[in-house]
């Protein structure tokens, strides 16, 4: 009688044993990262600050004309962005952020959470504290961080060749000094002006359409023949007539 009772119990326990492989996938942490460390695998349906931090890093992979929301909700758009990120770096492209995905992100970010090829200094030639714009200093700085991750994705898509940054955030006084528009996105910290560099203005303007920039202004648009302006705004406005945009 005892044996007949123990057999089904043992069978039940064996069904719920977690294999080493499953345990590793459930806990994606390999080493702690000085910027931000993810402590769990993230997939569709997850929510929280760790999802929002992931969204910032994959904001440059929304697909042509798309903009990824940074709302901390892992929905279909986030899954698609994670999948594109994985494809871009030759990872298993399943849209689930586990150890391999986070390891690649750790390799791409510096200790201050900026991507390795861009810095806060590049995106602020105005002042040292990000104050005086149309949003708080903290918001302007946070917006600049998102723009940098979009530029990192764009840089990788263009063969990992450098992208020249000519300017970013402006306070109201800095914006007035250069004759900027009263409603310029530079006042919000999410606008970046790009030099031609090795790629050329038109290649930059065209590529930017794939990386989450709702505002793209370039050659042929008034005042933009000597740079490409990329930014985030609530609605799309792309204009670089000399480049066919």
From TrEMBL:
Residues of the Peptidoglycan binding-like domain: 47-104
GO molecular function list: carboxypeptidase activity
Domain of life of the organism encoding this protein: Bacteria
Keyword Protease: yes
The Peptidase M15A C-terminal domain, residue ranges: 117-231
Signal sequence, renumbered to the chain: 1-23
Name of the protein in its database record: D-Ala-D-Ala carboxypeptidase family metallohydrolase
Biological source species: Lentzea kristufekii
């Amino acid at each position: 009688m005892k044996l007949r009772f123990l057999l089904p119990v043992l069978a039940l326990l064996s069904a719920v044993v977690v294999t080493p492989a499953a345990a590793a996938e459930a806990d994606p942490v390999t080493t702690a990262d000085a910027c931000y460390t993810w402590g769990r695998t993230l997939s569709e349906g997850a929510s929280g600050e760790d999802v929002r931090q992931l969204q910032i890093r994959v904001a440059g992979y929304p697909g042509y004309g798309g903009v990824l929301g940074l709302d901390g909700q892992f929905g279909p758009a986030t899954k698609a962005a994670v999948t594109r990120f994985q494809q871009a770096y030759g990872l298993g492209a399943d849209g689930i952020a586990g150890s391999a995905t986070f390891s690649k992100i750790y390799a791409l970010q510096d200790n201050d959470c900026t991507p390795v090829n861009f810095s806060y200094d590049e995106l602020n030639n105005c002042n040292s504290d990000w104050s005086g714009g149309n949003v708080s200093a903290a918001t302007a700085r946070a917006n600049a961080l998102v723009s940098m991750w979009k530029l990192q994705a764009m840089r990788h898509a263009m063969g990992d060749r450098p992208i020249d940054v000519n300017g970013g955030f402006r306070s109201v006084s800095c914006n007035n000094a250069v004759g900027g528009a009263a409603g310029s996105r530079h006042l919000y910290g999410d606008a970046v002006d790009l030099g031609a560099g090795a790629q050329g203005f038109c290649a930059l303007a065209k590529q930017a359409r794939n990386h989450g920039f709702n505002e793209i202004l370039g050659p042929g648009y008034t005042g933009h023949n000597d740079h490409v302006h990329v930014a985030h705004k609530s609605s799309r406005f792309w204009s670089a007539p000399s480049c066919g945009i």
